[in-house]
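Email to the structure team, subject: Zinc-finger domain-containing protein model.

Hi all, the expression group asked for a predicted structure before they design truncation constructs. Nothing fancy, just the tokens so they can compare against earlier work. One-line instruction: predict Zinc-finger domain-containing protein, return tokens.
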Amino acid sequence: MTATQPQPQPTQANARTRYEVRRDDLPLSCPLPSMGLWNSHPRVYLPIEADGGEADCPYCGAHFVLVD
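Reply from the structure team: attached below.
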């Protein structure tokens, strides 16, 4: 008999106003891939590397900061 692992729950979309992301998370999109799309806006890709390591989502205003 094998135990089943619980599946990770998706992150709630637009739950915060500031998110820290790493280079492993690129390309950056809002909502993040770990967030459910059903209760959020359409996915939009944000050019965080071109904007000095920070980007704002035009739909929800979430602020993303690239940390190394």
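The radius of gyration is 14 Å. The longest strand covers residues 18-21. Ping us if the truncation boundaries need rechecking.
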